[in-house]
Amino acid sequence: MKVLITGAGGFLGQYFVKEFQDHDVIPLTHKDINIEDKNTIEKIIELKPDLVIHPAAIRSPDICERDPDLAWKVNALGTKHIAIACSILDIPLIYISTDYVFSGDKNSPYTEFDTPNPINVYGRTKLQGELFVKEFCEKYFIIRTSYVFGEYGNNAFTQIYRSLKEGKEIYLSNYHFASCTYAGDLVRKVKELSFTKLYGTYHIVNKGIITRYDFAWKVAEIFNLPKDKIIKLTSENFNQPAPRPLYSVLRNYVLELYHMDDMEHYEEILKKISFLCF
Ligand SMILES: NC(=O)c1ccc[n+]([C@@H]2O[C@H](COP(=O)([O-])OP(=O)(O)OC[C@H]3O[C@@H](n4cnc5c(N)ncnc54)[C@H](OP(=O)(O)O)[C@@H]3O)[C@@H](O)[C@H]2O)c1
Asked: For 117-126, b where at least 16 C-beta lie within 10 A, e where not — what string?
């Protein structure tokens, strides 16, 4: 199977490339393709993939807030170009979306049956990406995930680990509640779904509820690193351009209903990483 992966140079893109290495992977980095361009449609059609996995995006909520035109071009229109190409080829598209499509007003975990209502530009543009996927594709998987970490690449875990190891202070919010997700588990689950015809929207996260502060604390505890450099940011001193949902915990409800939810607790994953890699 020919699997085309966008954002192949990014954090999750690299995990997808590795996970699908037993297939004929077409890894497209930002240098290979700029999804903002209209000719993305023709470029993808020419490559004749059997499946497209699309994690490419402007992932930083603050960059999106500062430069909404860029966010709408990449996250929304870029996804539209890819969705049109997949619809012309009549192949499945896997779009990686986010917990930030939700407002955070709910005080129990969000399921796939809750109505999105994003509160920042990043969330709005990613939600529009979802809508384009639904508008143009018959065969799609929309995968919403949250606070993804892994043992390599640039992500929350590696940043926290490196900073604490080097004795640097880190400042993290302790009042935004969310889920977190091990990239290895996420790409494995996406691969499993990609071989089914169970198209639709899925939440894929590990068990456990975190704040960024709690997550760093757990990393310090499991990896035996000093905790005194982890500084709490409260609502008074959390000052970022993009508002964040206060509660964006996701529940893998559709996977649960299909008896396919084998995602572990994130603390177990951190322990495995510490055992295997450090
Ligand atoms: N990481 C998380 O915690 C998290 C949580 C929820 C959802 N997600 C979603 O997961 C996906 C992947 O996130 P990630 O963490 O892997 O982000 P990432 O490391 O920033 O990767 C995104 C990739 O997209 C590429 N890209 C940006 N603009 C592009 C354009 N115009 N054309 C082609 N490629 C472009 C980037 O290339 P350059 O860097 O060279 O510009 C980068 O390689 C995103 O869709 C994000 O919304 C991530």
From this structure: ebbbbbbbbb
Copy the structure tokens of residue 116.
């999105």
Tokens of 60: 């930083």
Q: Which tens digits make up the pLDDT trace of 45-103?
A: 999 999 999 999 999 999 999 999 999 999 999 999 999 999 999 999 999 999 999 99
8 lines ligand 1 (CB under 6 A): no
Stretch 182-190: mean pLDDT, rounded?
Answer: 98
Q: Which runs of consecutive H residues, i.e. helices, occur in 28-165?
A: 40-47, 61-66, 68-71, 79-89, 121-136, 156-165
169 in a domain, yes or no?
no
Cα of 7 vs centre of ligand 1, distance in Å, is 6
* Cα-Cα-Cα-Cα dihedral sign, residues 245, 231, 207, 204: positive
Q: What are phi and psi of 27, to 5 degrees?
A: -85, 115
Residue 51's Cβ-count burial label (10 Å; 0-12, 13-18, 19+) is: buried
Any atom of ligand 1 within 6 Å of the Cβ of 14:
no
Q: Quick check: CB of 148 below 6 Å from ligand 1?
A: yes
Residue 90 lies inside a defined structural domain of this protein: yes
Q: How many whole angstroms separate alpha carbon 134 and alpha carbon 132?
A: 5
Q: What angle do CA 10, 184, 53 make, to 5 degrees?
A: 50
Q: Whose CA is nearest to atom 18 of ligand 1?
A: 10
CATH no. for residue 98? 3.40.50.720
Beta bridge partners of 250: 110
pLDDT band at 203 (very low <50, low <70, confident <90, very high): very high
Nearest Cα to Cα of residue 147 among 197, 182, 113, 185: 182
pLDDT of residue 238 exceeding 90: no
Residue 174 within any structural domain of the chain: no
Domain assignment present for residue 164? The answer is no
